[in-house]
Each structure stands twice: as structure tokens, then as C-alpha cells.
Design goal:
Helix 5 packs across helix 6 and helix 6 runs parallel beside helix 7. This protein has 10 helices and 12 strands. It has one domain: Rossmann fold (3-Layer(aba) Sandwich), CATH 3.40.50. By secondary structure, the protein is an alpha/beta fold.
């Protein structure tokens, strides 16, 4: 697999939910979006807006449509019905390269490329900005360096990816997304396979990125979602079950109805954010 093929696979602050907003404020708008896999409905009539500057967590049980929704936002899939607008334009009419200039997406995994170094992978983030011949310009090495510094992996630049720990690889992949130099960052379960310490490292990086980017992320850890996102979108069976700030969304009723568990929702004394105590399946 070539370096170009790797990026082809990859490229393509709290706020209240946006009930209204100008085109300039709106990053994404979904209008009655449906999506099917082999005639099986995954998303059913989803309509919502995400404004620039929001940090949004998509939560829900496995198979509820979270990752599918993220792929639609990143232009990696097309809706079966309805439309997805990016900065006021139907994303279906944008090319893959044009979408990658606006939206960076971090998938759960990337195909392995034996011998590839961290720097070589992060340089792939410049794919969408290259000229017709696909040449890497000198200035783009500076963008790569800056992205690696922001993700805290500059010292790993010459290390082969297979020699890195799970946490190090995830931070390198975040640097890859940052190297695309977009206003929007999509993250699909960024803490998957990481131990507790590395989960916190990655989430703190996401918090830092959110100060200047629009972030939409799929998370399974409800406490992380409540602490690091200003808005939760809870999906159930492909529909929007709840939408709002974590303190408004998380409740024992939501835990039961959306996640199928009995539980309690407390308030963290240090951060003032909701904390879920899960007791038993229902």
C-alpha cells in the first residue's frame, strides 16, 4: 500500500444545540436523513444542525448509527434519503479532496504500512492540499511539524509506527488529522483500545483542539462525553433520542431507554459535570 492510499482511506468550547443559525455559523445541517445497509434502516429521518465552534459527542448503543452518521458528515458515505449540508452546500456535490480540505476524520483504525514512520504518516494529511502532480511542497513539512508538536508527538517523528504504544499511535493519528488543517475534526471512538491514562491524554488533547475547531466525536464512555463535550446527541435505533448539554440530556430515564441499563446520574464535585453510575442491565 502506498502513502497516497493511506490518506485516501483517512481523508475523505461548549455550546447549546443550534435550533437556528446563519449559513456562516452552521457547520453541518442534516435534513431528514435516512441511511440503509442492504435495505436495513440505520438512520431514520434525522434532522439537526451543528454550529461552528461546538464540541459534540455522539452517544448510544452499538448499532444505533453513530459511526454511520460520522461517515456521512465526513463525506465517506452518501445518505439513502435527505441531504447533508457542509457549510451550506450539499456534501454530495463536493469532491473528496474538497471535503477533506474542510473536514478531517479520524477513523478507529488505519491500514498498517510496515516500516512507515510517524512523520511519513502525518505528512499524508497534506493530501487534499497538494497540486495536480501530488507533490509535497516545502511549506507543508512545516505544517506537518506543527501538527506533530500540537499532538505532542514531535519526538516520535522518525519512529516506525509498529514500535509505538497504543497511546502514541493514537496521538500520531490525531496529528495526521490536524495536518489536514481544517476547521472541523471528526473522531470515531478516539479512546478505543487505550488504557485509562492514555484515554485521558487523548481527551485532554481533544479539549485543547476544541478551542479552535469544531469537534464531533463518537464516544462510548458517558463520563468522558459529559466532561469533554458541550453537547450530546443520543441516538436510539437510528433516531435522535435526546439533544442538548450533558446536564440536560443524561438522566436515569435516558440510561434506561437509550442504553438499556438501570443507573444513577450524579454531579462530579470537581468538574461540575454529570457522572453516570451504572447498576444493571434492564
Amino acid at each position: 500500500m502506498t502513502e497516497e492510499s493511506v490518506i485516501e482511506e483517512s481523508a475523505t468550547g461548549a455550546a447549546a444545540p443550534a435550533a437556528a443559525g446563519t449559513a456562516a455559523e452552521t457547520a453541518f445541517e442534516l435534513r431528514d436523513v435516512t441511511f440503509h445497509y442492504d435495505r436495513r434502516p440505520v438512520l431514520r429521518g434525522l434532522s439537526l444542525r451543528i454550529r461552528h465552534g461546538e464540541t459534540v459527542a455522539l452517544v448510544g448503543r452499538n448499532g444505533c448509527g453513530k459511526s454511520t452518521l460520522l461517515r456521512l458528515l465526513g463525506g465517506m458515505a452518501r445518505p439513502s434519503g435527505g441531504s447533508v449540508l457542509l457549510d451550506g452546500r450539499d456534501i454530495a456535490g463536493l469532491g473528496r479532496r474538497a471535503t477533506a480540505r474542510r473536514v478531517a476524520i479520524l477513523h478507529q483504525s488505519l491500514p498498517p504500512v510496515p516500516g512507515m514512520t510517524a512523520r511519513q504518516l502525518v505528512r499524508q494529511g497534506r493530501f487534499a492540499h497538494r497540486g495536480v502532480l501530488g507533490l509535497l511542497r516545502d511549506a507543508e513539512d512545516e505544517v506537518t511539524r506543527t501538527a506533530m508538536e500540537r499532538a505532542g508527538v514531535a519526538e516520535l517523528a522518525d519512529r516506525p509506527l509498529e514500535t509505538l504504544s497504543g497511546g502514541e499511535r493514537q496521538r500520531v493519528r490525531l496529528a495526521l488529522a490536524l495536518a489536514q488543517d481544517t476547521r472541523i475534526l471528526l473522531l470515531d471512538e478516539p479512546t478505543t483500545y487505550l488504557d485509562v491514562r492514555h484515554q485521558l491524554e487523548v481527551m485532554e488533547l481533544v479539549r485543547a483542539f476544541a478551542e479552535r475547531l469544531t469537534v464531533v466525536m463518537v464516544l462510548h464512555d458517558l463520563d468522558h462525553a459529559a466532561r469533554y463535550a458541550g453537547r450530546l446527541l443520543a441516538l436510539r435505533d437510528g433516531r435522535l433520542a435526546a439533544d442538548g448539554p450533558p446536564a440536560d440530556v443524561l438522566s436515569p430515564a435516558l440510561l434506561r431507554d437509550v442504553f438499556g441499563v438501570a443507573g444513577r446520574v450524579l454531579t462530579d464535585e470537581r468538574y461540575g459535570t454529570p457522572v453516570c453510575r451504572l447498576d444493571a442491565p434492564v
